[in-house]
Structures are given as C-alpha cells and as structure tokens.
Amino acid sequence: MNAEQKIAKFKRFGSVLGLERIKKLMELLGDPQEELRIIHVAGTNGKGSVCRFIYEALRANGYRAGLYNSPFVEDFSERIEYDGKGIPRDELEICTDRVIEKSRVMMQNGYDSPTEFEILTAVAFLYFSRMKPDLVVMEVGLGGRGDSTNIIKNPLISVITSISHDHGDRLGNTIREIASEKAGIIKSGAPVVINVKREAKILLQEVARQKGSSIFDAGEAKPRILECGPHGSIFDVMLNDTEYKGIKLKMAGRHQIDNALTALAAIEILHKNSIIKVNPEKIRKGMEEAFMKGRFEVIDIGIPCVLDGAHNVDGMAKLTDSIGRFFPDRKPLYVIGMMADKDVDGIISILADSAKDFIATEPDNSRRLKAEILCGKLAEKGAVCHAVPDVTDAFFEAQKRKNGFGLMVFAGSLYMIGDIRKNFGRISDNGK
Predict the structure, then answer these.
(1) Are residues 308 and 396 in the same domain?
(2) What Cα–Cα distance (Å) separates residue 54 from each residue in 5, 19, 227, 275?
(3) Structural domain tally of the chain?
(4) Is the full-model pTM beyond 0.90?
(5) 382: phi > 0 → left, psi -120 to 50 → alpha, else beta; which?
(6) Is the pLDDT assigned to residue 172 strictly greater than 70?
(7) Together in a domain, 164 and 20
C-alpha cells in the first residue's frame, strides 16, 4: 500500500473542523511547523491562485519556497511542492509513515482519529521541516478558524481572498458568518492583506483591529489593464510607493488580475517590513511563470476547450462572465460534473443563462451529484442535456459533437479536471 492509499484510508473520518486533533498530532511529531516561516492564505475562491503567484514570485527572487495547496489535478504530489517540484515519492512515504505512526499513538491515548486532511497537513509540515525552505506558502483547506493549517501560531502575513457562499453547513449562511471563519487565520501583530467585498471587509477590519494587526485592502488598487484575453492578461499597478509595470499573467480572466494584485500586495508588505528582499523585475518574471491546471485553462483541438474547476456560485459566475467576454460569438457545449453538497440550484441558474447545450457527468468522488439528477435540473431550466456518468465517456461524447459548436467548456469540479486533461493527451497520442 502506497502513501496515497494510506492517507485515503482516513477519509472515513470525514471532514471535521477543529484544532484539537492536529495539535496533538503535531505535538507528537515535535511541532515541526514552528520551525517554518509561513504565508497563510484563506478565501472562498482564488486562494490557490494567490498562493501560486506568491510562490513563483518568491522563487524568481531566489528563495527556496514550499507550497501546500489542494486539491491536486493529476498527481497527488501536486499538493505539496518544494522549489518547483512535487514531493518525491520516497519523501512522501517516509513522512506519511511517520505521521500515521504518531496518529496511532494519539488514538491509543484516547484522542479521536485525525481526518484525511489533517494527516496530509501534518505530512506537509513534516516534509517542509526536513527540506528547510526559506518560506512556505500555505493554503487553507476549508474556512480558516478550525482548519488544520490554522495550527500556525505566528504567520509572516495572513492573506484573505474573495469571500462568497460555499460550505454553508460548516461555515455559515451569511457573508459575515463566513468572513468570521476566514478571519480565524488573523494572528496578533501579523499583517493582513484582504481583497473582499464590503460586508466581509468590515468584519475583517474589526478582527484585525482587535488583534493589533495592520490591514491592507488590495481591492483598492487601481490596475491599468493593457490586455485581458483567453490566454492571459497584462497590467500596470501602483502599490504603496512601488510601480509594477507590464505584469503578465498566463492565468486568464479578470478575476486573476485581482488574485495577482492580492499576491503583489502581500509581497510588497513583506518587502517593506524587511522580511524578504525582492525587486519588481524578478517579481514580474515570477508572476508570468505562475500557472495552475484547470483555472480557465484553454486547450485548442480545432475548437477552443476551456477547463475550469469552478465549483460554487461565485466561481461559476466568473467563469461564464469570462466565456462571454472572450468567446462572445461561439456557441458553447458545456460538460458539467458537480458535487451534491454545493449550491446546485444556484450554479444551474447561472449555467442555464449562459448556454443551452450540456453533457452531465460525475466526478470520481463519493460526494458527486448523479448525472441524471443534474441533467434533470438543467432540463427544467430549458436546457438540452445528455447524462453520461463516466467522465471519459462524457469527454469523447463531447468530441463526437464538437462540429456543432464553437467552444467546449469542462467545469463544475476540479476533481474531474484531471481526468479530462488525461483524455486530451489521448487525443494527441492518437494523432486525432
């Protein structure tokens, strides 16, 4: 049994917020996280992209950096990265075995089992402590306050990206409630960067004031957008007293400019506080290098295909807005797979306003929404939908039908994007 399979066994304990288990587990491991200099990033959408932008900018400036994010798209090692490479298999095995050994000790002492995410977080902390990076960029898994990454006591900086409705059963049903959970990563004296809407901003400012933390609103930055298209953007911006010119992004969409501004603000504050030394030209190079699979990723196979992990109302709204902006005259065919615990009706309302032709499929995940149910809901909105539960079958069904459309969009969950990307590879391998 390999490390990934060992970690997956802890899925049966669910996703349970709270720090008691992770604190005990890390204590048994010798608290390796306390040796690390961490940039902590939370948010409903965009946090993965913000992490990637910061990570690549640090690397371009000569820093040996670690990155912890989720979920992976094609390979499990994507979740824990150091100096540009996913965690090596031997290190993953060593760290996993040690963490699981200590989890058994913990349970023998009367504690509940750690969750799958807590095991993986502990593996990341342990691996980074072995590699001794200059800095680690760490993405929150769910929420903030009770997320296992929030065992971090003294982050260099806390970053909170966009806040919108998601995981209402655990984070709350109002923006203020959700913002309160995200605000849990704000720590006394550590600066905070935010890029959120007004209601969330007021709450985060209150918490920062209580914690004695300075707060910077990246949403107030006014970029001059020189180019914004399906293959990326170029913009200039002034942050504090630093002018960043010609920032190029491979990741497309107006929202990625907002994510880049959030990352730039965090880097600028760390630089101003003499925590890091960077220069704008190297930052520009790093930002241009930043790329994430399945974030408005465009692959051309005769017609453009967009792959996007949009999985909640806000994410889907941004995706369909970008589709309308970048491909206004192309009739789209959507291949959609979703999780049943999302705001399915809200997402479907957005999709039905954007297109009329769909293939419903099912991500390889126990929380998946049945393709027939998804199809039925889309049909109720007047859409034409075919249910094809297997993702690979859905992909090739879309290929058969592509001549009737000017664009294909694969979306609804990052859990299906990896399988979709592999199928594009099969098309290339077969010379089709």
Answers:
(1) yes
(2) 31, 26, 22, 14
(3) 2
(4) yes
(5) left
(6) no
(7) yes
